[in-house]
Specification:
Layout (H helix, E strand, L loop, with lengths): L26 E3 L10 H6 L2 H5 L10 H11 L6 E5 H13 L5 E4 L5 H8 L4 E4 L18 E5 L11 H10 L5 E4 L20 E6 L11 E6 L1 H12 L8 H12 L1 H24 L3 E2 L6 E5 L5 H10 L2 E5 L9 E4 L3 H19 L1
Parallel strand pairs: 1-11, 3-4, 3-5, 5-6, 6-7
Antiparallel strand pairs: 2-8, 7-8, 9-10, 10-12, 11-12
Helix pairs in contact: 3-8, 4-5, 4-7, 9-11
The structure holds pyridoxal-5'-phosphate.
Length: 355
């Protein structure tokens, strides 16, 4: 820390991203990226002429990308705002809505929520999960406070039912209920259909996982036009050109290639189910994940140890060194071949560690 840092941030604990290895080749199952490339339409969209146009600023309204997103969900354009990854959208939402009221979110969830709360001086209430890692909605029914829930939740992959989300929305007529749907395309139900009924619902999504564009940094929010206008005001007060020209093109092309999107997410879901079955046969415990990752405990191997042993075998997974999830690994669903290698490595580790 320099002597110049505002003391307000002295205790800030930044978010720790998963490792992005250089050099050695790993099977990379640690940051929930897609094992498949983006839609071929994305590559077609990035022409030489578009690269030459990088001398010009990008469209601050993200008009064509917003249109593509609105068309996909059957919404109006004023119900959509885009961001530099959904992380930026989440930051705008904490900034715009949470200062007075604070926010409640699960104690085990996306690691950025407490970081944003700290950064923006937002009062955060971390609500413990049930023993089986499911979310009990009762503690979220207190009006006067905003609610932030990842659905499916991270890193458990467990999803709430839409009627549970609706119960939370009804308890909070004057607060924002933010549903982070980063993983919703892998089998959970989106709350998009609730938008006409609830002007306090804000849905946040990303192109990073189900659309294989993590490096493109494209996220978006869906909600009532007034909520979206507030987020847009944050964007124009911070960085109007928050998406570059190439990500804008990539995002729109990807959103319009519905067939490719469904094929990729379908494959990942099928691989997830096959992998889960194979791991259960080895005695692993896991949640019923509806995301593009599995949340797994190896029998007789502590979480940190399991992560290290996998790393030694050339496989990266995510481990969170905190109760009550310390013995679990979050394992991204990769390609069939990658997951076969993972299952084999797990089988070896369980056998070796038992000796
Ligand atoms: C990955 C992830 C995000 C962030 O996605 P980006 O769009 O890449 O910034 C947000 N929320 C959750 C729950 C995530 O897992």
């Amino acid at each position: 820390m320099s002597r110049f840092l505002d003391p307000r941030y002295a205790a800030l604990e930044p978010y720790t991203p998963g490792e992005q290895p250089r050099g050695r080749k790993f099977i990379k199952l640690n940051t929930n990226e897609s094992p498949y490339p983006p839609s071929p339409k994305v590559i077609e969209a990035i022409s030489r002429a578009e690269v030459e146009d990088l001398r010009l600023y990008s469209d601050p309204t993200a008009n064509d990308l917003v249109r593509a997103i609105a068309e996909f969900y059957g919404l109006e354009k004023d119900q959509v705002v885009t961001g530099n990854g959904s992380d930026e959208i989440l930051a705008f939402a904490f900034l715009a809505f949470c200062g007075q009221k604070g926010a409640a979110f699960p104690a085990i969830s996306y690691g950025f929520y407490p970081v944003f709360a700290e950064l923006f001086g937002v009062r955060a209430r971390a609500v413990p999960l049930n023993a089986d890692f499911t979310i009990d909605i009762a503690p979220y029914l207190v009006p006067g406070e905003n609610v932030v829930i990842a659905n499916p939740n991270a890193p458990t992959g467990l999803a709430l039912e839409l009627d549970q989300i609706e119960t939370i929305l009804r308890a909070h007529p004057d607060d924002v209920v933010l549903i982070d749907e980063a993983y919703v395309d892998f089998g959970a139900r989106s709350a998009v259909g609730l938008l006409p009924k609830y002007d306090n619902l804000l849905i946040v999504q990303t192109f990073s996982k189900s659309r294989a564009l993590a490096g493109g940094r494209i996220g978006f929010a869906l909600g009532n036009p007034a909520l979206i206008a507030d987020l847009s005001a944050m964007k124009y007060s911070f960085n109007p050109y928050n998406l570059g020209r190439l990500p804008l093109l990539a995002g729109a092309a990807s959103m319009r290639d519905v067939g490719y999107f469904r094929a990729c997410t379908g494959r990942i879901i099928a691989t997830r189910e096959r992998t889960a079955k194979a791991l259960k046969a080895l005695g692993c415990a896991m949640t019923d994940s509806l995301a593009n990752f599995l949340f797994v405990r190896l029998p007789g191997v502590a979480g940190g140890r399991a992560q290290q042993r996998l790393r030694d075998k050339g496989i990266l997974v995510r481990w969170f060194d905190r109760a009550p999830i310390r013995d679990y690994l979050r394992v991204t669903v990769g390609s069939e071949e990658e997951m076969a290698a993972f299952v084999q490595a797990v089988e070896e580790i369980i056998r070796e560690e038992a000796q």
